[in-house]
């Protein structure tokens, strides 16, 4: 079996040379961060990922989490790993020092989080959900709630969850029916059933802080009548110690196709007297607060696409170097070689590698925009608004495809569970669904982030201008000219499709939504191709300056691959957007 | 849960109007076949698929086959279903009346087999493998072996297997090391281990007839030193009764990601004295004989892509009609409707439907060529040679993508095993691997079927001429003009890529193989698009003639969708072929 080794060189290149880590360290509040410090953090994180999380990933899949009488036992090794994870400070890394965090920039946590997701995606969901809950509390809850809950959550001693979905309220949050009523002492009683609650119950954390969307009596219907409540598993005494068990229970956990290590709970609130909850912020504003968690979570789920593709790649590469099978076409010696030498195995691995690098670059670049926006940069805010659905939607769709491509490298043994390739394939399949399906992301992109922008399309057009500038810059270098041409063509396709979306959204939003997912793919390919082109330009400069680090040769090669094998698909996606809507609706419903 | 209903109208349209069933019934040897007879056969088959095979599919997945001490117990219901399958004559349908078969044309068995694969792909593997073994025996074995084994195999009382793969010999059959030696009485003793033997051991058939590739002492090395042996589980007495147990055993069955109902065996031959085997045909010609089975099996595995996509589609459509979630974009009433009304759900289902129809049309069309070639038509033989790797490789790759698209329709519940969508997604994943991976198919296509043809590219160019003629024909009808333009563009891309393959194969076969899989996708899209265009032309004629069958409207709609959403991708695949080889090899092995 293979061992996960963090791709530190690529991570550092992207952080330092593409995402501008030094700039970000210079922003107010990041004074303690430095390029050197980040390098040692990544080194330490890679050791934790390789040494602690990767070895228990398989047990997470084969044994998984088990629920009996409302008590969840996580997979062998998970509890100890979680303890160590918290003790060594990894849980606290991204959060504000005010509550015990280390306050590291988003771009740094992005690289570290990628390692957790590669090594053990099911495990990584626990700190990810806790992080989302921390964000929502930190931004919207009272000081009293913050002081009482955040320090333990930042440590990781208490984990956190997001409770949105109900049986009849999935993508349609307006249908939420869980109830809350004020008791009169400032607390509320919550009752209802929530499903798909990631890490909703577990034996790793001492307490679990549930953030629950519910309706107050007489609340307006729909999205404007939903409030957000903090509902702890154990009530917390004033001195911070744990009090009595709250009236909530894990009714069962789901039997899923993948991420078996992550307990996905059906949570039942208020079967007896009602679960004690605390209002976060104001009444009826819960949906807005929840989006604080959602945006955080969406970029992080996009990163799962990167992480799982990287891990699947490493596993397939290990096999492709080990497995000897057949002579190589065109090799007259007839010598049998590792299958990495077979052209199509080479193509599969190159495909996974190049596309994973493009996704990684986009994700870290997006995180840099989060850091800049946090420091007040409006341009960066517009960029991260635009790219959040792309990072989530495109990277997860790619992650599914690439974990499949990696499985294919194994041939017959790829389909055997013991080989381990199946796990990545199965695990990845949830990523295009949770935290908003690909269609939800795509509709956000063409709607809120484009056609319904204050100046429709302004954010996309600003990015396209930068993309075209990069293409023009590369065109001058003969060794990059091929990349430049493909990038320019891709940008033209995206520009045409953007204009079409803006021109048609008002009059025919259905037609635009019929092409929103192809538009998402198109945006991902062009944005990813752009950042790979920028990376190639930097690599070419270094080589021209005499730098002999082979990494730069490799980056040129993956950028060239992405340009010649992925950017040509931009035109096809654009034609689906601009010329395909009528055909989507061509069949009356009864004829399906 | 949904119930499988065979898409009889589409099947009959393709058989009668595209594949030319009446012509095929008129061929010598098919005199007893008629369009009416086929219609009633399909009706009966659909009842068997819906009533017997579909209901046990889930148990096949959840319980699966179990092996204990060499004895395999198949999933609940499988044994009874198999008995009924044989008793009602379904097993015998495709085979020669000489041995008790019904001798129906390939094109008819193709439609019937699709139903088995949709309803229960794991079950359908048993008759499929038996069929391959029957073909090999019927074509190559002595009359004595044929008389002794074929009648029971045609009935299905005895099942059959293909034993190719060994731990060190997967795609590279030249590495086979299983041994056979002549005893002197005309029989042989076989010893060695074979893996991935589909239905290698089971409790459904009374005897299992293994066809085993093995080497005789002093055989030449490589592919030219492999012979094919018939090795029965129970020796057969001269009167046809079962004799003693042969020296072979199922060592274990694999723990696979899908098709749990199909026991995939590790077979151990000759642990004691050696397993008694009978030479099929001549010594050292086993690989050629095995390809008789392989070509049969490849088209049939391609059909699995069709069958699983159809079943996944029906399951997702059922949910999309049932599940109510959210108001529809652009619908000012705000009324919540079934999710089929959401544009992206509509797109997903249209995508699965249109592409499944294209694959079905290609598979039945290919089967019609088999029937014509069987009657001596050399043009049809060239066409089926060309299309066999396309039906196998393209349809299975599509099947994986489409079962994923169907799962996406379910949203969160799609990832829960009880929903059933996961099974199709997991089951489908083997199809691009067994019976030759997609790369093996693609290399066969660009090599043997194109560049190394007697007149290189002649078969492809003949098909392209027909495709261009169809495009020209459609261009005259304004309602089909859009299809015509997209088909013409696709054909141009395929033509360019074909020329490139022929021009470069001799001097740089590695470069051609680096683009063989994109070339396979390209061929599939254009060939599928062509047959959908032909279908649209027929539908348009019927409508113009006053036929009010809504099926023709639906066919026009799916053809239009395929033309506007799939054919545009042809150009991108072609550019991967003609301009992407260098990039595949751009990274030295040590830099992966």
Automatic annotation (TrEMBL), chains A, B:
It catalyses: 3-(methylsulfanyl)propanoyl-CoA + oxidized [electron-transfer flavoprotein] + H(+) = 3-(methylsulfanyl)acryloyl-CoA + reduced [electron-transfer flavoprotein]. InterPro entries: Acyl-CoA_dh-like_C_dom (IPR025878), Acyl-CoA_Oxase/DH_mid-dom (IPR006091), Acyl-CoA_Oxase/DH_mid-dom_sf (IPR046373), AcylCo_DH-like_C (IPR036250), AcylCo_DH/oxidase_C (IPR009075), AcylCoA_DH/ox_N (IPR013786), AcylCoA_DH/ox_N_sf (IPR037069), AcylCoA_DH/oxidase_NM_dom_sf (IPR009100). It holds the Pfam family Acyl-CoA_dh_M. One of its GO terms (molecular function) is flavin adenine dinucleotide binding. Keywords: FAD, Flavoprotein, Oxidoreductase. Involved in the assimilation of dimethylsulphoniopropionate (DMSP), an important compound in the fixation of carbon in marine phytoplankton, by mediating the conversion of 3-(methylthio)propanoyl-CoA (MMPA-CoA) to 3-(methylthio)acryloyl-CoA (MTA-CoA). This is 3-methylmercaptopropionyl-CoA dehydrogenase. Residues 284-445 form the Acyl-CoA dehydrogenase/oxidase C-terminal domain. PANTHER family: ACYL-COA DEHYDROGENASE, BROAD-SPECIFICITY LINEAR ACYL-COA DEHYDROGENASE FADE5. Its cofactor is FAD.
């Amino acid at each position: 079996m293979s061992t996960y080794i963090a791709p530190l060189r690529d991570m550092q290149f992207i952080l330092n040379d593409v995402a501008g880590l030094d700039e970000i360290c210079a922003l107010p509040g990041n004074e303690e961060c430095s390029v050197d410090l980040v390098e040692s953090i990544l080194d330490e994180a890679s050791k934790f990922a390789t040494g602690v999380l990767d070895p228990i990933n398989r047990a997470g899949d084969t044994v998984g989490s088990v629920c009996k009488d409302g008590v969840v036992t996580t997979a062998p090794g998970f509890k100890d790993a979680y303890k160590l994870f918290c003790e060594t400070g990894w849980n606290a890394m991204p959060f504000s020092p005010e509550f015990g965090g280390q306050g590291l920039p988003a771009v740094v946590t992005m690289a570290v989080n990628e390692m957790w997701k590669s090594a053990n995606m099911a495990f990584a969901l626990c700190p990810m959900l806790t992080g989302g809950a921390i964000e929502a509390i930190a931004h919207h809850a009272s000081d009293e709630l913050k002081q009482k809950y955040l320090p333990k959550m930042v440590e990781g001693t208490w984990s956190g969850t997001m409770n949105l979905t109900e049986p009849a309220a999935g993508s349609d949050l307006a249908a939420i029916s869980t109830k809350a009523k004020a008791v009169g002492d400032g607390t509320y009683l919550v009752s209802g059933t929530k499903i798909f609650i990631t890490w909703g119950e577990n034996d790793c954390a001492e307490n679990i802080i549930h953030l629950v969307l519910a309706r107050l009596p007489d609340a307006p219907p729909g999205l404007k009548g939903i409030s957000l409540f903090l509902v702890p598993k154990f009530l917390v005494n004033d001195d911070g110690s744990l009090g009595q068990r709250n009236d909530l229970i894990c009714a069962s956990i789901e039997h899923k196709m993948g991420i078996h290590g992550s307990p996905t709970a059906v949570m039942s609130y208020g079967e007896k007297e009602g679960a004690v909850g605390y209002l976060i912020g104001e009444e009826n504003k819960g949906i807005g607060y929840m989006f604080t968690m959602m945006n955080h979570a969406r970029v992080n789920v996009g990163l799962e696409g990167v992480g799982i593709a990287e891990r699947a790649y490493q596993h397939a590469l290990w096999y492709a170097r080990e497995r000897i099978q057949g002579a190589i076409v065109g090799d007259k010696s007839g010598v049998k070689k590792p299958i990495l030498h077979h052209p199509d195995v080479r193509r599969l691995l190159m495909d996974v590698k190049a596309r994973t690098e493009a996704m990684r670059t986009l994700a870290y670049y997006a995180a840099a925009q989060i850091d800049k926006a946090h420091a007040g940069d409006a341009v960066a805010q517009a960029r991260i608004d635009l790219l959040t659905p792309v990072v989530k939607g495109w990277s997860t769709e790619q992650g599914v495809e690439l974990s499949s491509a990696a499985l294919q490298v194994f041939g017959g043994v790829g389909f055997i569970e013991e080989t381990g390739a199946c796990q990545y394939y199965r695990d990845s399949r949830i990523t295009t669904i949770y935290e908003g399906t690909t269609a939800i992301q795509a509709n956000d992109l063409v709607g809120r982030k484009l056609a319904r922008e204050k100046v429709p399309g302004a954010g996309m057009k600003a990015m396209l201008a930068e993309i075209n500038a990069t293409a023009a810059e590369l065109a001058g270098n003969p060794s990059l000219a091929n990349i430049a041409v493909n990038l320019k063509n891709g940008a033209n396709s995206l520009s045409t499709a953007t204009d079409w979306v803006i021109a048609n959204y008002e009059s025919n939003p259905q037609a635009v939504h019929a092409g929103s997912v192809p538009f998402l793919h198109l945006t991902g390919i062009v944005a990813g191709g752009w950042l790979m082109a920028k990376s190639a330009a930097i690599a070419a400069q270094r080589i021209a300056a005499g730098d002999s680090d082979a990494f730069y040769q490799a980056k040129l090669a993956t950028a060239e691959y992405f340009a010649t094998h992925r950017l040509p698909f931009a035109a096809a996606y654009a034609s689906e957007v601009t010329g395909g809507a009528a055909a989507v609706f061509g069949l009356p419903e009864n004829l399906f």
